[in-house]
Design a protein that fits this description.
15% strand, Aspartate Aminotransferase, domain 1, 2 domains, 11 helices, globular, Aspartate Aminotransferase, domain 2, alpha/beta, 13 strands, single chain, 381 residues
Length: 381
Amino acid sequence: MIYFDNAATSFPKPESVYRAVDNTLRNIGASPGRSGHTMTLEAERIVFNVRELIAGLFNISDSSRVIFTNNATSALNLGIKGVLSDGDHVITSTTEHNSVTRPLKSLERKGVEISKVKCPDEGKIDPKDVASQIKGNTKLIVITHASNVIGTVLPLNEIGNIARKNNIIFMVDASQTAGCFPIDVQSMNIDLLVCSGHKSLLGPQGTGVLYVREGIDLKTLCEGGTGSDSEKDTQPRFLPDRYESGTLNTPGIAGLGAAIEYIQDTGIKKIREHEKKLTKLIIEELSKIDGTIIYGTTDIEKRAPIVSFNIEGFDAANIATILSEDFDIMTRVGLHCSPDAHKTIGTFPSGTLRFSFNYFNTEDEIHAGVRAIKEIINSKC
């Protein structure tokens, strides 16, 4: 089996991730912060240690500002809806995932004004276009680090500088880049950072992260038991408890911690170089096939390991089905929950076929995928 759907969920995971999840389920299994016995204390230690790992990975000075969520979607909703109110203005882009687009659309019906900065066909964004949209009531800039459709990496440093100079909260969706690109919340002026635990961070599903800069007070979306201030009928004011009601996914968090340790031991630079090599290779090989249209920037340095394409005269969904059923190659087809991105590159509503890679993919797999595409084309000609 060849797995080219890592932009949805990375597979496989490092072996240490499986061991960490299994060990936590089998041998710990208690709720962190809910009692004083040895098992719950061990669960609490695991959660704290993983917060520290995340803080170190992104240069976060205070790990209590790291909030665990069920996924990146939950984190984006908490950040977006926690910041914006009626009368506020938000700036975003035309390459965002529905996890940004839909919460914003919901808030638009409640009086929030939205400006979408248009991106050209390659999905790039000009920071000057972001600056030109700023108004007196602009409260938030929310931008993806890299599109999950075309992989184009956006200039966070420049946009972060613009946000900081104008006293605007800067929120980054790093679902596709956390773990395979260096991210520094301090130097990039990121106020709210969202990460998916199960993509390039190589952790289990059911894990997400929201970093909240000191001085930002989000409205809560969920209130309940936190194991702290239990004598009160109001939510705690301190972090992380304020935004972590209910029992945490301790086995998932343990697995995420093991994944981050694997990334740190391997080195993000090494991971990035390998994924760049795979991305460059697939683009070169697909470009040799007549009728192939590859979307996104040709600059590998500014591209995540994501390649969306179509082949003229062929239905992408049919190709994906044949790849799965006849060649045991797993891909993704359609709109990828990002209709705005497809409108940007002109592939709406049919979408594209997407190959996405991680550190465990190989050059031999790339060649096998290209051979399969050629066989499919030749069999239909």
